[in-house]
Amino acid sequence: MNAIEITGLKKSFHGLYVLDGLNMTVPLGAIYGFIGENGSGKSTTEKLICGHLVPSAGHIQLFGKSYKDAGIRARVGALIENAGCFPNATIYQNLMMQAINLNLPRPHEDIHRVLKIVRMEDGAGLKFKKCSLGMKQRIGIAMALLGDPALLILDEPINGLDTDGMRIMREILTDITQSHGCTVLISSHILGELEKIATHYGIIRQGKMVQELTATEMEGRCRTFTTLKTGDIQRAKLDLQKLFPDVREEGGELRVYDVNDTEAIVRHLLDNGHTIQLLQKNRIGLEEYYIELMSRKEGA
Ligand SMILES: Nc1ncnc2c1ncn2[C@@H]1O[C@H](COP(=O)(O)OP(=O)(O)OP(=O)(O)O)[C@@H](O)[C@H]1O
Ligand SMILES: [Mg+2]
């Protein structure tokens, strides 16, 4: 059973299809990074899963049941756009209003529990309007966690956060999945950050899923390369090509792809009388992979 299973999902606004037969599978316990350019349909997909919008066609299953099932709906928490808090009320009061809305039998305990998860136990008395952006995002997550969701949907929760804010968010999301068994669907444009937490990826383009893959599959496709600068680049390139399968010149530097043994590269160069001015190990990450995939699809 998967947390989310979407098939042939379509959504049109004023006759224009924003989602055009989207398929998507989010496994249980995943942190699923949902990636795509502006306007590709991420927020629309998330709103459809949450039942905020009605699909034009297609199926959405959550935990093996229709997304319309009331029991299932109650297990979905979401932070889409903003937390929807009252600015003049305190964090505690905002959470209490939500707890009352959800008819929670032990609201005080639940508020304490979610504030602890989002590392804000000491801030309950602060007015919402006084909170920083990072705090507001965390309060939004606390709101979404109040109903003890099995699935958490977060639309760009790390936008605009500073390094520390991102680190805290990373810890919170890992904690939610690992300690609380929650599945997280998270959309973001900050791929370097997403890469640190996602276990799965879904790449959407113009309302269609271009590719879904696990973090391990992504890792396998993200190549490593060693950047080199030598006294005579052309001669070094020819010498390196005798031993290593993929050596390229790029911007006055040499790149030796997929060789983990840097020492072997150095040894080969020195043995052939080269001088090494620069040597650096690099990795093609999610961002480069995404850009490459997008340009390939565009050309196709
Ligand atoms: N209520 C609406 N009425 C009309 N068009 C809409 C509505 N909601 C979304 N759209 C359009 O649907 C398309 C997809 O929007 P969506 O917000 O899902 O994209 P997104 O992938 O979340 O983009 P971003 O990365 O900018 O957040 C856009 O062209 C948008 O203008
Ligand atoms: Mg969006």
Please characterize this protein's 3D structure:
With 300 residues, the chain is of the alpha/beta class. It folds into two domains: 2-219, Rossmann fold; 223-283, Alpha-Beta Plaits (2-Layer Sandwich). 38% of the residues lie in helices and 29% in strands. It is built from eleven helices and 14 strands. It has helices spanning 42-50, 70-73, 91-101, 107-117, 133-145, 163-180, 191-197, 215-221, 233-243, 262-271, 286-299; strands at 2-13, 16-27, 31-35, 57-62, 65-66, 76-79, 151-155, 183-187, 200-205, 208-214, 224-230, 247-250, 253-257, 276-283. The strands form three sheets. A six-stranded mixed β-sheet has the order 6-7-8-3-9-10, sandwiched between helices. It has a four-stranded antiparallel β-sheet with strand order 2-1-4-5, covered by helices on one side. The longest helix has 18 residues, at 163-180. The mean pLDDT is 93. The structure holds adenosine-5'-triphosphate and magnesium ion. The site of adenosine-5'-triphosphate has 10 residues, from α1.
